[in-house]
Amino acid sequence: MNTVATTHSAAGRPLAMTDLSRTAASYRKVFSQLGFTEHQSLGCMKFTGVYEGRQTTVAVGVRSRNRYATPDISYREFSGLILDIHVDTSISTYLMVLNSSSRQGWLVRWLQRLNRNHHVESLDALLPGYHVFAREPQWAQKFVESRGVMGDINLLLREDSGVANGNLLRWGPGSCGFTPNRVPDEITTETAEGWMKPLADLATAAEANPPLEEAEFTWLGKQAGAGRMWMVIPAVLLGIPVALFLVVLCIAICIVLVS
Asked: 140-175 as b/e, with b when 16 or more CB fall inside 10 Å?
């Protein structure tokens, strides 16, 4: 793991950027061969193109965080890369398949409830190691169990041995996305197509049997989709303590009334 000590919280970014630049050549070569166009921004590479007839976007960035050696000395810890792929689709629904053993599981469940999505518990046995959250649980159940879909899901969410790999699969209005838990420093064309092919096939399968309800972006979804994460993060951080305060307040009122 690469770290660098400093009194400034932003330190370590040049080191992270160096790791990204070493990786860039491999990703640039592969997606160029696939006919994608590269767009660069600070700390992130983005490739856009058409794959299997679908507009596809691939974003690769650095994963880092501030750590503190002492109250006065902080360092930036670079812990690898983060990658996100999404393909356009005519489906407008919310569905997420995520690691059931995530340490942030309680937060994920809270956010899903906030987004009016439901845990499809009937799929837990079918997808060991994962939980499915969906706006339309009945449609999600039929979709996941439909012919060919489980095969594509397993290609994205399991190792060759069948063990869950912790990857994330999701649908939002007009988009089907995939985020691997671990991102390789170098890839081949086979690696990239191994991500994009099953994702495109899943989008096609969902369009063949679309959900009854056409979902719209929630407020949080609109902010994230528009790149306004500076609004989403405070909303989440403020929402948690407010929710806890309301719970404590309700308990206190109940105690007073019972007394």
From this structure: bbebbeeeebeebbebbbbeeeeebebbbbbbbbeb
Q: Is 97 helix (H, G, I), strand (E, B) or coil?
A: strand
What b/e sequence results for 12-41 when a residue is b if at least 16 CB atoms lie within 10 Å of its CB, and e otherwise? Answer: bbebbbebbeebeeebbebbeebebeeeee
- Mind listing the pLDDT tens digit for each residue in 25-54? 899 999 999 999 998 777 688 999 999 999
Structure tokens at 137: 């649980």
Using CA atoms, how far residue 151 sits from 48, 143, 157, 172, in Å, is: 26, 12, 10, 21
CB atoms within 10 A of CB 119: 16
pTM across the whole model: 0.73
Contact 117, 96 (CB under 8 A): yes
